[in-house]
């Protein structure tokens, strides 16, 4: 179920956080989506995805309806979940077509689906905000991570920590030279070379650079989706499932 998981308990006036990266084990999807595919848009059976999402929610002590997914579109738009800040509460359950999602609530978890793109999870444990971001190549180039940070700061976030999950690594993400150059024009650190010496992009390095530049403290989990059989990789398998990064704010203790 989980490739990585951490729970930081609330402490005094600080909120806690639970954040995790799933793997592909322990679900009910059949080949080529086996086993724990959490995405509906990839061609898997809807019932299998629902069962898998139920399992994830249960593991987090939540209901399926408390998981907030995005309709990810490789853009740089950001949404705030209903009931956070100025956003009015609504019963609307349609996922927003964005690649960054922010919450100030402790009764829901934000989910980003990936299979080579970079999953970024954010928390401000002082002001009480979390975010999930989907950063593929277009997202890294167009700046979906800085856009999400800017929106969080507008809402009042100040002290941000980031978790950067596994993605396709710079040695494995082969691209045409002009595509590498376009990415490097935005984030020079993303220019990479494959195992065989051809042009490549190191997406996660570019994303980490964007976080560090914005003063965010970063934890970057080692791992490459294409090289790790426990993770889904579009580059390796083509038709396949999606694993997720998930983050939930934990209510702080009452302060007088
Ligand atoms: Zn790799």
Describe this structure in words.
It is a single chain. Strand 7 and strand 8 (129-135) form a beta hairpin. The N and C termini lie far apart (39 Å). Helices cover 22% and strands 25% of the residues. The protein contains 6 helices and 13 strands. With 256 residues, the protein is α+β, with helices and mostly antiparallel strands. The radius of gyration is 18 Å and the shape is globular. It has a single domain (2-250), classed as CNF1/YfiH-like putative cysteine hydrolases, CATH 3.60.140.10. Zinc ion is lined by residues 169, 171-172, 224, 226-227. Keywords: Copper, Hydrolase, Metal-binding, Transferase, Zinc. InterPro entries: Cu_polyphenol_OxRdtase, Cu_polyphenol_OxRdtase_sf, Cytotoxic_necrot_fac-like_cat. It comes from Ornithinimicrobium humiphilum. Belongs to the purine nucleoside phosphorylase YfiH/LACC1 family.
Distance between the termini: 39 Å
Order of helices and strands: EEHEEEEEEHHEHEEHEHE
- The order of strands across the largest sheet is 4-5-8-7-9-12
The CATH homologous superfamily is named CNF1/YfiH-like putative cysteine hydrolases
Largest sheet: 6 strands, mixed
The low-pLDDT segments are none
> What small molecules does this complex bind?
zinc ion
CATH topology tier name = CNF1/YfiH-like putative cysteine hydrolases
Tell me roughly what share of residues is in helical segments: 10-25%
CATH class: Alpha Beta
Dominant shape? globular
Beta-strand content estimate: 25-35%
Total individual domains: 1
Query: Measured on Cα atoms, how large is the radius of gyration?
Result: 18 Å
Mean pLDDT: 95
Would you identify the CATH architecture? Answer: 4-Layer Sandwich
Number of helices: 6
Structural class by SSE content: alpha+beta
Count of DSSP E strands? 13
């Amino acid at each position: 179920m989980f490739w990585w998981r951490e729970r930081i308990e609330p402490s005094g006036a600080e909120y806690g956080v639970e954040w995790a990266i799933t793997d592909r084990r322990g679900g009910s999807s059949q080949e080529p989506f086996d086993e724990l595919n959490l995405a509906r848009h990839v061609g898997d059976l809807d019932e299998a995805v629902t069962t898998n999402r139920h399992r994830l929610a249960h593991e987090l002590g939540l209901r399926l309806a408390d998981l907030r997914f995005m309709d990810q579109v490789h853009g740089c738009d950001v949404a705030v979940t209903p009931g956070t800040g100025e956003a009015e509460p609504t019963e609307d359950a349609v996922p927003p077509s964005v690649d960054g999602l922010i919450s100030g609530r402790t009764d829901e978890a934000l989910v980003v689906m990936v299979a080579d793109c970079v999953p970024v999870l954010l928390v401000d444990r002082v002001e009480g905000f979390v975010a999930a971001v989907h950063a593929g190549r277009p997202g890294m180039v167009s700046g979906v991570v800085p856009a999400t940070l800017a929106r969080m700061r507008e809402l009042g976030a100040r002290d941000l920590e980031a978790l950067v999950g596994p993605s396709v690594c710079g040695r494995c993400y082969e691209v045409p030279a002009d595509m590498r150059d376009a990415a490097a024009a935005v984030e020079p650190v993303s220019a990479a070379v494959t195992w065989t010496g051809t042009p490549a992009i190191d997406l996660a390095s570019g994303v980490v650079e964007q976080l560090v530049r914005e003063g965010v403290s970063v934890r970057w989990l080692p791992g490459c989706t294409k090289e790790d059989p426990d993770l889904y990789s579009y580059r390796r398998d083509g038709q396949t499932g999606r694993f997720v990064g998930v983050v939930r704010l934990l209510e702080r203790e009452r302060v007088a």
